[in-house]
Amino acid sequence: MSGSCSDCGCSGKPLNTNHGYIRALRWALVLNFALFFVEIVGAVDSGSVSLLADAIDFFGDAVNFGASLVVIGMASVWSSRLALAKGLVMATWGVLILARAVWAHFAGGVPVHETMTWISILALGTNLAVAAMLYRHRAGDANRSSVWLCARNDALANIAVLTAAQGVALTGKGWPDIAAAVPMALIGFRSGVSVISKARREMSTQE
């Protein structure tokens, strides 16, 4: 998941292209797709709901990064519309993961904590690198804000999965995995609402 409203072209003119921002988005896109496949395999192998939630988040972020690349240089209204759509996706993701966590609670089962641990460490290192690349671009229009939030949320989610893995190892139970998925869902929902609100404010000034 950076500049002021006037910097990002709220007058309807094409947004300024920033080569550093474009390069960071391309790296973020590639890394997020790669980690999506790694985490999907790991989630299926380990039976971890929090790892599955993180994998779905990686896929959604990869799509978001790709879409952000598409609207660079286009009129700011398209950037705001994209941000609105991305906010809706983020909020929906939060609701779906929360529902999945509730289902896992009643289904039972204990995930493989070793798989959760090494994958979450790999994912955390990757997301910290992506977040560092995007940090300087975090301010500005809703689209850039949503990109920065995606990267930040991923790093927080990785820490949650890593913590859950240790909880599973210590207790021999599946509840730490489910408990980790709940805040991940709430963070995704809250960030989505924030992006939606900012995008709607931007769109109201463009009418």
Task: Give the key terms.
207 residues; 6 helices; 81% helix; 0% strand; globular
Oligomer: single chain
Structural class: mainly alpha
How many alpha or pi helices?
6
Shape category: globular
Q: List the uncertain runs.
A: 1-17
Could you tell me the number of beta strands?
A: 0
* Average residue pLDDT: 76
Describe the largest sheet. Answer: none
* Helix coverage percent: over 70%
Radius of gyration: 18 Å
Beta-strand percent range = under 5%
Can you write the helix and strand succession as a string? Answer: HHHHHH
Distance between the termini: 26 Å
Written account of the structure:
With 207 residues, the protein is mostly helical. The protein is 81% helix and 0% strand. The protein has six helices and no strands. It has helices spanning 19-46, 49-71, 76-107, 113-134, 142-171, 175-206. The chain is globular and about 55 Å long.
